[in-house]
Design brief:
Layout: E1 2-6, E2 10-15, E3 18-21, H1 34-43, H2 45-59, E4 62-64, E5 70-71, E6 80-83, E7 101-103, E8 109-110, E9 115-117, E10 125-136, E11 152-164, H3 172-177, E12 183-191, E13 202-207, E14 210-216, H4 224-234, E15 242-244, E16 260-265, E17 270-276, E18 282-283, H5 288-293, E19 303-305
Parallel strand pairs: 6-15, 8-12, 9-17
Antiparallel strand pairs: 1-2, 1-5, 1-12, 2-3, 3-4, 6-7, 10-11, 10-15, 11-12, 13-14, 13-16, 16-17, 18-19
Helix pairs in contact: 1-2
Length: about 300
């Protein structure tokens, strides 16, 4: 099933290309925030809500997807944990990097059709990382890798926005990753039964229609089960929490004002966002791989114009 929020955060199900309003089936959930609704649906899925929502979809009339405003399917998760350097870069790494991760603030969440805003800070470049995100289905603490898939409710697309090279670089992940609007997700939450092999999904990200990132989740250094085991050993995970599984860095490139970004991971739908930079800074459009293969120094191209450019 594909769950989503739409318009004023009504709960819906995408069925045969249309949105069926199932908000009447969750009126029994005490909710101060839409996330409370989704958390309760996830936690009570097998015992209470799955059959109820399936019946509502069968009986309900759909609304064309392009006639609604799609919202983030998890608008304020308690935890967003991200795996760091978790790909073998198309097999070019000779050994796995040390396992590592970092959190993103829930206030960084935006959804399909929303805008990532590049802040007025002296970052050397702004990038966005295409990722498969795991959504936790039940309370998870010290989960062994052998049992990890029992704790997965579903999956969604995620873009990990990054502001690189902010001086000083102490506590770099926090400064780079937890900015407002830096965690687009969606367009919907796809239940695990619709994703039979999440460890073999194509991941594709386009910038203004040009394919920039193109890799497969099979290239993970630490697979999905290992990632859940690692994060759940750090802290307890709750229903509706997110684990972002990392990215292949070869296709990373600059995000700039006016860009349209599209992400597709397997059959999880297409997440589309726009980029806004009121300073209108510019960089060359090479990917990291293109930049380094051109014999250039550093991992990323330098800023060309606007405030904080080297020549400004």
């Amino acid at each position: 099933m594909k769950l989503l929020f739409f318009d004023d955060f009504k709960l819906g199900v995408l069925h045969e290309g249309e949105v069926v309003d199932v908000s009447g089936e969750v009126k029994d959930i005490p909710a101060a925030h839409p996330q409370d609704v989704m958390n309760a649906v996830i936690a009570g899925w097998d015992d209470r809500y799955r059959a109820r929502l399936e019946a509502a979809v069968s009986a309900g009339a759909g609304i064309p997807l392009d006639a609604v405003r799609v919202r983030p399917p998890l608008p304020r998760p308690l935890n967003i944990d991200c795996m760091a350097r978790n790909y073998m870069e198309n097999g070019t790494l000779t050994e796995r990097p040390p396992i590592n991760g970092f959190p993103k603030t829930p206030n960084s969440i935006i959804g399909h059709g929303d805008t990532m805003v590049l802040p007025d800070i002296p970052a050397t470049i702004f990038e966005g990382e295409a990722e498969l995100a795991i959504v936790i289905g039940k309370r998870a603490q010290n989960v062994p890798a052998s049992e990890a898939f029992d704790y997965i409710f579903g999956y969604t697309n995620l873009i990990d926005g990054s502001a690189r090279g902010i001086p000083p670089m102490q506590n770099a992940f926090y400064q780079m990753k937890s900015r407002e609007t830096f965690c687009p997700i969606g367009p919907y939450l796809v239940t695990a039964d619709e994703v039979p092999d999440p460890q073999n999904l194509p991941v594709k990200l386009w910038n203004n229609g040009e394919l920039k990132q193109d890799f497969n989740t099979s290239d993970m250094a630490y697979d999905i089960a290992e990632s859940i085991a690692f994060v759940s050993a750090m802290h307890t995970l709750e229903p509706g929490d997110i684990i972002a599984t990392g990215t292949n860095h070869r296709g990373l490139h600059s995000f700039q004002d006016g860009d349209q970004i599209d992400l597709e991971v397997g059959e999880l739908g297409r997440l589309t966002i726009s980029i806004r930079d009121d300073l209108r800074r510019t960089w060359s459009r090479q990917t990291r791989l293109e930049w380094t293969e051109g014999g250039n120094e550093g991992r990323t191209p330098p800023q060309l114009t606007g405030p904080y450019a080297p020549s400004a």
